[in-house]
Specification:
With 349 residues, the protein is an alpha/beta fold. The chain has 2 domains: 7-121 and 313-326, ATPase, nucleotide binding domain (Nucleotidyltransferase, domain 5, 2-Layer Sandwich); 131-305, ATPase, nucleotide binding domain (Nucleotidyltransferase, domain 5). It has 13 helices and 10 strands. It has helices spanning 37-41, 48-70, 89-106, 115-121, 124-127, 167-177, 184-192, 211-214, 222-237, 244-270, 285-297, 307-310, 314-326; strands at residues 7-12, 17-24, 27-35, 79-85, 110-114, 134-139, 144-149, 157-161, 274-278, 301-303. Strands 3-2-1-4-5 form a 5-stranded mixed beta sheet, sandwiched between helices. A hairpin with a 2-residue loop joins strand 2 (17-24) and strand 3 (27-35). Bound molecules: 5'-O-[(R)-(carboxyoxy)(hydroxy)phosphoryl]adenosine and zinc ion. Zinc ion is lined by residues 115, 119, 140, 279-280, 312.
């Protein structure tokens, strides 16, 4: 992509991060993030009303910072992309209303995009165009899926998904059981470094006879959470200390094991040689290391974006917008809505 490629501004407000990204072709020019995570921490989860209000306060300054850091003015922007779903409705509306207002003021097209697809496509900013086809492992706080991604990102094919909790949700719930702060995923990652991953053999989910045939590319994490809760309670009832680092390392091992084993199986069964991992959990150090080792052993090439592109951000939205602009996809009508439960297979309107 040449430097005269269109400049796309991406807006992300689906949860608790206000993200503004600016992209030209596959080149990242700016990625500004403001987070309200500290305001939610004492509630142990994201409070939608607080998230919406925080987006409203943070979005304009973030926009200014992003333009400054990209060395552009708003007049240089050729198109706007914005997360239209899935996510918290009140939070999404702040981004979508801002995007529409900017599109009208600047006379540029606006693209309402799918947050989940943008988690997969963001890697193009770091490692160039995705191979066609690629198996995508999407692991975030609300979603966990294995996807078959073709050149046309608007026709993502789901191969499997979690039957209950998302991987990030499993990390967060276990962290809570261990008394670690919210969001728990990064804490488990950190604490696990001091622990023994083989200390406790936690269940892998869908591993019973017959499950492999029936659910070859699906996941289940609710049993893991229950097993950890039981394990912790039994130690507490016996008056024993909880070896937090060992529990964290063993849980992380179980999650990374299941995710990577199913990803390699999906590639093998579908004759696909490329893997991309996206979503907040892709920032997990053990998942990254295990995926690297298993993909290498299976002769697969693996791409994982750097951690700050894995968690929610505006650059990923701009990356998907940039792809839509480059492929000549039609822009959204100005009356497009937000869709809180948008499936990964659907464009945003
Ligand atoms: O993609 P994301 O930023 O937001 C959603 O779209 O959900 O993902 C957030 C999830 C949270 O559950 C968080 O605990 C998890 O990603 N996460 C991690 C790590 N960093 C973020 N999980 C494990 N290890 C990490 N290093
Ligand atoms: Zn996300």
């Amino acid at each position: 992509m040449t430097s005269d490629a269109p400049i796309v501004l991406g807006i992300e407000t689906s949860c608790d991060e206000t993200g503004i990204g600016i992209v030209q072709g596959h080149t990242l020019l700016a990625n500004e993030i403001a987070t309200s995570v500290d305001e939610h921490a004492r509630f142990g989860g994201v409070v939608p009303e607080i998230a919406s209000r925080s987006h409203l306060e943070a979005i304009e300054p973030a926009l200014q910072r992003a333009c400054r850091s990209a060395g552009i003015t708003l007049d240089d922007v050729d198109a706007i992309a914005v997360t239209a779903g899935p996510g918290l409705v009140g939070a999404l509306i702040v981004g979508v209303a801002t995007a529409k207002a900017l599109a009208v003021a600047l006379s540029v097209p606006v693209y309402g995009v799918n947050h989940l697809a943008s988690h997969v496509v963001v890697d193009e900013l770091q490692h160039g165009p995705l191979a066609d086809p690629t198996v995508g492992l999407l692991v975030s706080g609300g979603h966990s899926s294995l996807l078959l991604v073709s050149d046309d990102v608007e026709s993502i094919r789901p191969l499997g998904q979690t039957l209950d909790d998302a991987a990030g949700e499993a990390f967060d719930k276990v962290a809570r059981l261990l008394g670690l702060p919210f969001p728990g995923g990064p804490w488990i990652d950190r604490v696990a470094r001091e622990g023994d991953p083989s200390a406790i053999d936690f269940p892998r989910g869908l591993n019973n006879p017959g499950d492999r045939e029936r659910y070859p590319y699906d996941f289940s994490f609710s049993g893991l959470k229950t097993a950890v809760a039981r394990w912790v309670k039994a130690r507490q009832d016996a008056g024993e200390d909880i070896p937090v680092a060992d529990v964290a390392a063993s849980v992380q091992e179980a999650i990374a094991d299941v995710l990577t084993a199913r990803t390699v199986a999906a590639c093998r069964d579908h004759g696909v040689g490329e893997v991309v991992i996206g979503g907040g959990v892709a920032a997990n150090s053990r998942l990254r290391a295990m995926a690297e080792a298993r993909c290498e052993a299976a002769g697969l090439s693996l791409r994982v974006p750097r951690p700050d592109l894995c968690t929610d951000n505006g650059a990923m939205v701009a990356a998907l917008g940039s792809r839509l602009v480059a492929t000549g996809a039609p822009a959204s009508p100005l009356d497009f809505a937000t869709t809180s439960n948008l499936p990964v297979t659907r464009r945003a309107w």
